[in-house]
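One thing: can you check what follows?
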Amino acid sequence: MTEDTSFWGTLFSGAALFFMIAWIALILVAGFKLYVKAGQPGWTSFIPFLNFFALLKIVHKPWWWFLLLFVPFVNIVIWIMMFNELSKAFGHGIGMTLLLIFFTPIAYLVIGFGDSQYELEEDPIF
C-alpha cells in the first residue's frame, strides 16, 4: 500500500513541478514581450535589478525611485504608482492596474501577448 501512495505522490509532484516550470517560462516570455513592446531590450526583463531600471524607463520615472523600494510602506505606494503608470503606458485603465497589483503574472500575459500598444509620452525623463 505504501508503494502505491509513494508512486502517486511522486507522479503528482513531478506533474506539479512541470506545470510550475512551464508557468514560470510563460511569464518570463510575457515579460520579455512586454519590454520589447515598450522599446526596451527584452533580455533586461530577466536580470534582477536591471529589469526594474528598464521598467522605470517604460513608465518614465527617475532612477532614484529604485531607492524608494527600500523604505517600508513607501515601497507599496511606489509599486502601486508604477503599476498604474504601466497600465496607462499601454492604454489601459484602472482594471489593468488592479490586475497588475493583485495578479501581476496574468497581467503580464495580457499585456505581453495581447494587442496592447505602448503609447510613448512626448517628454520622457530618460
Q: What stands out?
A: The mean pLDDT is 88. The radius of gyration is 18 Å. The chain is about 65% helix and 0% strand. Residues 2-37 form the longest helix (36 residues).
